[in-house]
Prior knowledge:
Elements: H1 3-16, H2 22-31, H3 38-47, E1 51-54, E2 60-63, H4 66-69, H5 75-86, E3 87-93, E4 96-101, H6 106-115, E5 121-126, E6 130-135, H7 138-151
Antiparallel strand pairs: 1-2, 3-4, 4-6, 5-6
Helix pairs in contact: 5-6
Amino acid sequence: MSKEKRQKEILNIITGSDVSTQQELQSKLRDKGFNATQATISRDIKELSIIKTVSSSGIYKYDIPSNIRDKGKSPQELLRNIFKEAVISVNFAINIVVIKCHAGMAQAVCAKLDNTYFESIVGTIAGDDTVFAVLKSEALAIEFVGMLNKLLV
């Protein structure tokens, strides 16, 4: 079956049930007739910008980020949405802004920052729960942190 059909089924699965691991997703896909490797599923998760969120029962599960659910909104609205869901705190040291996120959420936040063009950002890098953004100057970093902290309110 095609990649497009597999990815559509992945979105159906994660919106219809709480799936917390790639192995669980792989099993559910197999039940639907899709034979995909863990590496393929990992690539699909990345391409679909799927994130992990905390379910109502308190466990982490795969979810569709609000920027995909909220098509038609401005880049600033989408950035605000992902920040409210994923970011714990924002701080800086000289010209480096450090964004602490919930586990597994940093890459989604970093991608949204990269897609919401900020002229003052030289570059970004994301780990599992932390994003580093290098800005052109300390003054720009201070201004950027202030703007990001307003998104958290």
